[in-house]
Amino acid sequence: MVAASLGEVVACLIRVPSEVVKQRAQVSPSAGTFRILSHTLYHEGIQGLYRGYKSTVLREIPFSLVQFPLWEFLKVDLQLQLPHLSM
């Protein structure tokens, strides 16, 4: 569970800036990705790219804490029910 949480924290370092740029591109479809990125960095600094980082991490960690144990449980259960599909 610690690994999943740490993985989400690290993944959000990449995911959040790309989401910020994507959302701003949806608001201003005529602006290109590079223009949005440079405008954000110039006017807001690196903090502008990480707007919403904390809330994203707080959303993703509980999801990971449920997702991975549930996946393992369902995988074992499915292997018991359908042994011919096991690898």
TrEMBL record:
Solcar repeats lie at residues 1-77. It catalyses: S-adenosyl-L-homocysteine(out) + S-adenosyl-L-methionine(in) = S-adenosyl-L-homocysteine(in) + S-adenosyl-L-methionine(out). It comes from Gallus gallus (Chicken). It is found in: Membrane. It is a multi-pass membrane protein. InterPro entries: MCP_dom_sf, MCP_transmembrane. Keywords: Membrane, Repeat, Transmembrane, Transmembrane helix, Transport. This is Mitochondrial S-adenosylmethionine carrier protein. The lineage of its organism: Eukaryota, Metazoa, Chordata, Craniata, Vertebrata. Mitochondrial S-adenosyl-L-methionine/S-adenosyl-L-homocysteine antiporter. Mediates the exchange of cytosolic S-adenosyl-L-methionine, the predominant methyl-group donor for macromolecule methylation processes, for mitochondrial S-adenosylhomocysteine(SAH), a by-product of methylation reactions. GO terms for cellular component: membrane. It holds the Pfam family Mito_carr. The keyword Oxidoreductase does not apply. It comes from the Eukaryota. Belongs to the mitochondrial carrier (TC 2.A.29) family. The keyword Zinc-finger does not apply. Its main location: membrane. Gene3D superfamilies: Mitochondrial carrier domain.
